[in-house]
Structure formats: C-alpha cells, structure tokens
C-alpha cells in the first residue's frame, strides 16, 4: 500500500506584524527586509496560544478536506521546534485536543525547518509498512517565543503558523519517494543554544544564526536533494509541476529554482506573507496552493525542507 495526500489544512494566528511595525521596534527598514528576504509581514501567536492550538486548527481543516473523521486517525506526528512544553510531546497534546486519545502512536519530530518533510517521510514509512492507515502529519510553530526581539538580524525573519496533511492508503503513490539527510557538523550555524535546567533557563534561549553560511548551505543542498529525488524516480526536472521549497527567504527559493531550471511560475511562494514558519512553512504553502486550485490531481509536487542541524530533505508526491 502507498500513502496519498487526502487533505490539507493550515492555520495562521490573527495578529499581523508588518515590516513597518518592525521599523518601530528595531533599527531596520521595510526596504532592507524586502530586498534581502522577500518578507512583508508575518503572523504572531496570541499570548497563551501554543503550537498545539495552531496545530489543532490546521488539523481540523485537513481532516475536513480529506473527509476523514478524527477518530479514524491512527498516527499523529507533529513537527515542531517550539513545543508546548518540554514534555509531553505536542503530538500527544494535539491528540487529546482532537478528542482521539486512545492508544494510537503520537510523537514529535525535531528537525527544525526540515521537520515537516521529515514527518512526512516517517509517516510514509509507517503507511507502507501497514502500521498506520490514516496519518495526521502537522508542522506547527510559535517562533515568536524563541526570537530576541532586539536582534534585527533574526527577529525580522520568522513567523508563527501551522499546516497539516492527512495521509490515507491507496494502491498507487501518492508519495513517490522520500529523501532525508543531516550533517550535525553544521549544528552551530543555526541554533537556540539554551536549555531548561534546575528550574531556570541556561544558555541563550533565542535563535542565533550565521545568515550567510545558512544561505549558502541551503541553496546547495536544496538543489542536490531535488536531483536525488528526480533520479530515484527516473524523472526529468521538467516533470516537476510544482516546487514547494522551505519558505525561508525569496532569494534562497529563487536560487534553488534557477539551479533546477524550474521557472518561478511553478514555484509556490508564501514567504512574503508568513515569513519563515520553520516546520510549518512547507505544509502552509502546500495547503494554500491546493486550496486555490493551482495544484491539481495527478500533478508532481516536490516538497523540500532545510534547517537547523543541519537537516534537509525532499518528498516527491503525486497528488
Ligand atoms: O530556515 C533557515 C533560516 N535562516 C535563513 O533562511 C537565513 C538565511 N540567510 C539569509 O536569508 C541572509 O543571510 C539574511 C537575510 C539573514 C541576511 O542577508 P545578507 O545579504 O546575507 O546580509 P548580511 O548578513 O551580509 O548583512 C548585511 C548588513 C549588515 O550590516 P554591515 O555589517 O554590513 O554594516 C547587517 O548588520 O545588514 C545588516 N542587517 C540589517 N540591516 C537592516 C542585518 N539585519 C538587518 C535588518 N535591517 N533587519
């Protein structure tokens, strides 16, 4: 049995933070942010709104779109870097909020901005092995909680949100292949080097990043992993109907598309309105393009993640 995407959903918090708002908070300009990143605005979760709350709304929408009842879900995977708490996992909390706590496995995946792609790959393995029938795969983040709002080099880049898909079994793919990678030797170029320790926080509990190193690494591995996925399926670049790379920065997205000779008309871009929502970004972009009718049944979609770790990966899926 293969796994097919039966439905997608997403959710964004109400509060919009524009570049003009940021101009009043740090020494930055709309012009700098737009030319360097393509980002115009991002959403910020309300006080007390947790990753599981965003995940819950996105999940409900994905289940509705799939026509699958929450009670049929027998696997919940949440990709997040900003979990509700140290434990239990956000997936277990989501399972409870969905009213389906009852024994099926639920766990989080921590692969930072590659999280959704990692979670899809894991869910696909469960489905192919016959270990799950209806998998709920979610990317959910409240990055606003791990940003230093005085650090202009990072706080302008990220936002909050969630995206979800429901996978169901089918005789044909569906997910054609998945490709995951990590190189922990680059863990220092993007991290939140803090921890909860003896009742306090030790280290630095905010995002720190070598932006240039991240940029170069991301463009290189996104192109490589796309080629790897195409080769595994004996497909040509021209057979990619839609490229959905991690939405970090329009310049990374454009450079990747250029390397792959995929015209920007076939690339889904949401970064200008969401900023970088880390593990949620690919799921959010997928949902938007499914709902507005750009992505149609039978088309080949390349999902790509890259992020802290460093981690990267691709999921090639026929819709
Ligand atoms: O999921 C992965 C997450 N990370 C990323 O996607 C980040 C990848 N990297 C990037 O997107 C880019 O490296 C940035 C957008 C972060 C930076 O763009 P850049 O073209 O690499 O700029 P830069 O780091 O070379 O900085 C140029 C200048 C610096 O000033 P000086 O030293 O030249 O005087 C920075 O201090 O821009 C300054 N700068 C800012 N100026 C206005 C840094 N942040 C800001 C800001 N507003 N927000």
Architecture overview:
- The protein is built from ten helices and 15 strands.
- Helix 3 (51-66) packs across helix 4 and helix 7 packs parallel to helix 8 (250-260).
- The longest helix has 22 residues, at 211-232.
- It has 319 residues and is α+β, with helices and mostly antiparallel strands.
- It has two domains: 2-171, Thiolase/Chalcone synthase (Peroxisomal Thiolase, Chain A, domain 1), CATH 3.40.47.10; 176-318, Thiolase/Chalcone synthase (Peroxisomal Thiolase, Chain A, domain 1).
- A hairpin with a 2-residue loop joins strand 10 and strand 11.
- It has helices spanning 19-23, 30-37, 51-66, 90-97, 115-128, 152-155, 211-232, 250-260, 271-274, 281-291, and strands at 2-11, 15-18, 41-44, 75-79, 106-109, 135-142, 160-170, 175-182, 190-191, 194-197, 200-203, 208-209, 242-245, 300-307, 311-318.
- A five-stranded mixed beta sheet has the order 1-7-6-4-5, with helices on both faces.
- Helices cover 32% and strands 27% of the residues.
- The structure holds oxa(dethia)-CoA.
- Oxa(dethia)-CoA binds at residues 28, 32-33, 36-37, 113, 152-153, 156, 190, 209, 211-212, 214-215, 248-249, 276, 307.
Structural key phrases:
319 residues, binds oxa(dethia)-CoA, Peroxisomal Thiolase, Chain A, domain 1, 10 helices, 32% helix, alpha+beta
Describe the structure concisely for a colleague.
This protein has two domains: 2-171, Thiolase/Chalcone synthase (Peroxisomal Thiolase, Chain A, domain 1), CATH 3.40.47.10; 176-318, 3-Layer(aba) Sandwich (Peroxisomal Thiolase, Chain A, domain 1).
């Amino acid at each position: 049995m293969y796994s097919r995407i039966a439905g997608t959903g997403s959710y964004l918090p109400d509060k919009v933070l524009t570049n003009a708002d940021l101009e009043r908070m740090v020494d930055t300009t709309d012009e700098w942010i737009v030319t360097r990143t393509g980002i115009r605005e991002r959403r910020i979760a309300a006080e007390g709104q947790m990753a599981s709350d965003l995940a819950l709304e996105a999940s409900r929408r994905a289940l509705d779109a799939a026509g699958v009842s929450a009670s049929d879900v027998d696997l919940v995977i949440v990709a997040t870097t900003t979990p509700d708490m140290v434990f239990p996992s956000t997936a277990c909390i989501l399972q409870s909020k969905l009213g389906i706590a009852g024994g099926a496995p639920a766990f989080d995946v921590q692969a930072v901005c590659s999280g959704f792609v990692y979670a899809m790959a894991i869910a696909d393995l469960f489905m192919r092995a016959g270990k799950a029938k209806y998998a709920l795969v979610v990317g959910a983040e409240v990055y606003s909680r791990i940003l230093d709002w005085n650090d202009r080099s990072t706080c302008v880049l990220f936002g909050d949100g969630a995206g979800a898909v429901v996978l169901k079994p089918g005789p044909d793919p569906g997910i054609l292949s998945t490709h995951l990678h990590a190189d922990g030797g680059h863990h220092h170029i993007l991290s939140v080097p803090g921890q909860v320790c003896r009742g306090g926080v030790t280290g630095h509990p905010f995002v720190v990043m070598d932006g240039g190193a991240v940029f170069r690494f991301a463009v290189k591995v996104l192109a490589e992993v796309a080629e790897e996925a195409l080769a595994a399926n004996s497909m040509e670049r021209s057979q990619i109907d839609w490229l959905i790379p991690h939405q970090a920065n329009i310049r990374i997205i454009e450079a990747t598309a250029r390397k792959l000779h995929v015209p920007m008309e076939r690339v889904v871009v949401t970064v200008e309105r969401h900023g970088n929502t880390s593990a949620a970004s690919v799921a959010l972009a997928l949902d938007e393009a499914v709902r507005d009718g750009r992505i149609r049944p039978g088309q080949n979609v390349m999902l790509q993640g890259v992020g802290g770790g460093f981690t990267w990966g691709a999921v090639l899926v026929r819709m």
